[in-house]
Amino acid sequence: MAAREPGAAAGTAAPLPITVEAVSKAFGAVQALVDVDVRVRAGEFLSLIGPSGCGKTTLLKIMAGLVPADRGRVTIGERVVTGPGQECSVVFQDFALLPWATAQRNVEFGLLLRGVDPAARAARARGAIAKVGLGGFENAYPAQLSGGMQQRVGLARALAVNPRVLLMDEPFASIDEQTRRVFQDDLLGLWSQERKTVVLVTHSMEEAIYLSDRVVVLSPRPGRVHQTLDVPLPRPREAGDVRATAEFARLVDGLWKVLRKLQ
Amino acid sequence: MTVAALVGLAVAWELVGRLDASMFLPPLSRVAVTWWQLLQDGTLARAASSSLVSLVKGFVPAAVLGVVVGFAMGRFAVVRYVLDGWVNALMSAPLSALVPILIALFGVRDTVVAATVFMFSFFVIVVNTLTGVRGADRSLVDMARAFGATEMALFGRIYLPAALPAVMLGLRLGVVQAVKGMVVGEMLISLVGLGERLIYYGNTFLITELYAVILSVLVVALLAGHLAQACDRALVRWK
């Protein structure tokens, strides 16, 4: 496979829209997703939320090209998704770090697989590590880092290839609350500097409202799009005290009312 | 601790031996003197060199083939379905009973010893490699695929390093099994190596010599085990 340099080394590639059309997926006899339609605008921050087992992670993996849909199709920009693509990066719930490699080598891994030469690889990985606030930990192994720091390595690895779409599968689920809040703010800060299309799978209502432009609520098995909520909170949210506002509480409560009916 | 325990055992052996309770329990000091004599007159060196050649001739193919078969079984369901029953059955089978078949196949030659070494060590290497490959973290595979990894890249950059600790454990267990296979094979064909010396001294009631050879076999087993462990440490530093 010819490995193309993904995007420019320094500049930021423009974000791409994602179209999910009538996607269905079954695992054996279990129908995971039925006729799911989602349109993610270019540069939008969109969350997928729903009861456990609603197929939100499956939908994300279909977008990433890791799992084929049974019916329907996913388009990222102009590309119809048939497998993993160069414009996407995925952040995993369990971090998916190579335990035998240092933070630096982990962040270089995506660049390595895409055929970037060693010198450029090292420089871009160092840059990405600094960007997520882990400068100085380049030579640490995952086992030597806390959960939050490990996920920062995961995010740095995703950003190092300069993706136009960032797919995040419950990235903060395995991280403690205080660390999570700081990390969420840092993510919003990074996102405002480098606009990417972000799809975030989460089971936290606060997280979905705090981070997203829109929240897509999926119904339980089989997963369908139940409702889409707009989040009209002003940005930047990370600077102020958005979580303490009445509007934030009202939006979280609105989302809860939708989800409660689905339980 | 280990040293203290060994010294204690040696002292106990020596004391019980000096009671002269049985000809089958000579004092350790006499065994040591005999061991030194056998070393001096070249008996041990001759026997051990023949044994070690068989050990290497049996273990190296077992290691290479065992890892290859283990990987094939780990990665391809078809191979796993075909071989799983055989591997499990032969791993728990009393392999010494199969040595006469090897003698029938190869004749009474040192090839039988190498074949026995192979048979003793192969399956434990296969099973450990298989476990290591199957244990490779699913999300690491997804992660590599998301970055566009080819099958070759998946193998070299995910499955191989992920399985390495289990592979090394298999090789460590395998080398211990190999030494057992070596002695069993040599004793059964009674022609070459340390095993032949064991049979000879046993049948002629040269008990002190017998103990000297048993100690030599232990030394070979310990050295082989330590060598494998050193390789393990050098290759799997991240654990």
**Beta-strand level of the residues of chain B, as a percent range?**
under 5%
| Average predicted local confidence, pLDDT of chain B | 89
Number of helices of chain A: 7
Q: Could you say how many structural domains of chain A there are in total?
A: 2
The rough form of chain B would be described as elongated
Low-confidence stretches of chain B: none
Largest sheet of chain B: none
Q: For the CA atoms, what is the radius of gyration of chain B?
A: 22 Å
| Spatial separation of the terminal alpha carbons of chain B | 25 Å
Structural features, described:
The complex is a heterodimer of chains A (263) and B (239). Chain A contains 7 helices and 10 strands. Chain A folds into 2 domains: 18-87 and 164-262, 3-Layer(aba) Sandwich (Rossmann fold), CATH 3.40.50.300; 96-162, no CATH class. The longest helix of chain A has 17 residues, at 177-193. Chain A is an alpha/beta fold and 263 residues long. Chain B is 84% helix and 0% strand. Chain B is elongated, with a radius of gyration of 22 Å. Chain B is mostly helical and 239 residues long. Chain B has helices at residues 2-18, 28-40, 43-75, 77-92, 99-106, 110-134, 138-146, 151-189, 193-203, 207-235. In chain B, helix 3 (43-75) runs antiparallel to helix 8 (151-189) and helix 7 (138-146) crosses helix 8 (151-189). Chain B has a single domain (43-235), classed as MetI-like fold, CATH 1.10.3720. Chains A and B meet through strand 6 and helix 2 of A and helix 7 and helix 8 of B.
